[in-house]
Amino acid sequence: MEKDNKHSNELKEKKITRKQAIKKAGLAAFSAATLMVLLSEEATARKNKRRGVRNCVGGHSSSSGSSSRSD
Length: 71
Fold this sequence. Notes:
Layout: H1 2-13, H2 18-51
């Protein structure tokens, strides 16, 4: 039990500044937003794969009506 008290006292003594807390919260928010974007892009890619849509260079799908080729 004495070991538990020592551990809890160490946690209480370890304080961070407001600036550090904001920085950590910002980093966590940025990481969460990045994951949301990556997961939504993956879901879109899977949905397009099921539909048979191909991705070309530049992010344009091959199902568009315009063509830049000259015959």
